[in-house]
Write a structure and sequence with these properties.
mainly alpha, 6 helices, about 75% helix
Length: about 150
């Protein structure tokens, strides 16, 4: 647990569109979660939920279980394996993002584009900062989507 906390409080420096930024990893993960949520809201709209018990179960699955398993599978395992195949991060991230988008088409065909863009962002976060940032960003994204 100490390792996770020390990793999430580490200060990262990065460039975005020619500007230099510095923030703690947990802050970056939260920002990425909000950005990807806003992108989802703009492109697709909300996912309806029914009963309160269904909402609680769905929120737990969306905010805790899905981010952990999906990020381990699509980022840690798949991007790492594809990097070994391609020898470069960009094609590994692209293929992983398309597969992530394809895995989310059960929400509807429009979710493919949205999830692929989200997969690109989370793939960049994984390659740049490790697995914890995309997990927290994914959890934030799903939490915001589930309370809407």
């Amino acid at each position: 647990m100490e390792y996770i906390i020390s990793q999430m409080t580490e200060v990262v420096r990065f460039n975005l569109f020619g500007s230099h930024y510095m923030m703690e990893m947990w802050s970056l993960a939260m920002v990425l979660g909000v950005v990807t949520y806003l992108q989802t809201a703009i492109l697709t709209g909300s996912v309806p939920m029914s009963s309160m018990r269904g909402k609680i179960n769905r929120i737990f699955g969306l905010v805790v279980i899905s981010p952990i398993f999906e990020e381990i599978i699509f980022r840690m395992v798949l991007i790492s394996a594809l990097y070994g195949f391609f020898g470069a991060w960009l094609p590994a991230i692209l293929v992983s993002a398309v597969m992530f988008g394809g895995a989310h088409t059960f929400y509807g065909r429009t979710r493919f584009v949205d999830s692929t863009i989200t997969g690109l962002i989370f793939g960049w976060a994984f390659v740049s900062f490790g697995i914890f940032v995309p997990i927290l960003a994914h959890a934030t994204h799903n939490a915001l989507a589930s309370i809407r």
